[in-house]
C-alpha cells in the first residue's frame, strides 16, 4: 500500500519558459530562468499591490493598540 509520502511530486513546468523543472533549480528549469525571475523581482516588474496609505506609512487610525 502506498501512502501520500511515497508518491513523487507532480511535474511542474518552469514558470518562465514552461519546460520541465530541474531538481537543481526548482521550480525553474535552468539557472537562466532563475536569473530572469530574480531580475523581474529586483526591477519591480513583480509587485504585491497594497493600499496607498501603507506605501506612504500613514496610519488611518483603524488599528487598536
Which terms would index this structure?
mainly alpha; 2 helices
How many strand units? Answer: 0
Largest sheet: none
pLDDT < 50 stretches: none
How far do the termini sit from each other? 54 Å
Number of helices: 2
Helix content: 25-40%
Q: Mean of residue pLDDT?
A: 80
Molecular structure report:
With 65 residues, this protein is an all-alpha fold. It contains two helices and no strands. It has helices at 31-43, 52-56. The N and C termini lie far apart (54 Å). The model has no long low-confidence stretch (mean pLDDT 80).
How is the topology of this model organized?
Blueprint: H1 31-43, H2 52-56
Concise synopsis of the structure shown:
The chain is mostly helical and 65 residues long. Helix content is 28%, strand content 0%.
Amino acid at each position: 500500500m502506498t501512502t501520500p509520502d511515497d508518491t513523487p511530486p507532480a511535474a511542474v513546468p518552469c514558470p518562465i519558459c514552461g519546460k520541465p523543472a530541474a531538481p537543481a533549480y526548482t521550480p525553474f528549469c535552468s539557472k537562466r530562468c532563475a536569473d530572469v525571475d530574480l531580475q523581474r523581482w529586483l526591477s519591480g516588474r513583480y509587485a504585491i499591490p497594497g493600499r496607498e496609505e501603507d506605501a506612504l506609512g500613514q496610519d488611518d487610525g483603524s488599528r487598536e493598540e
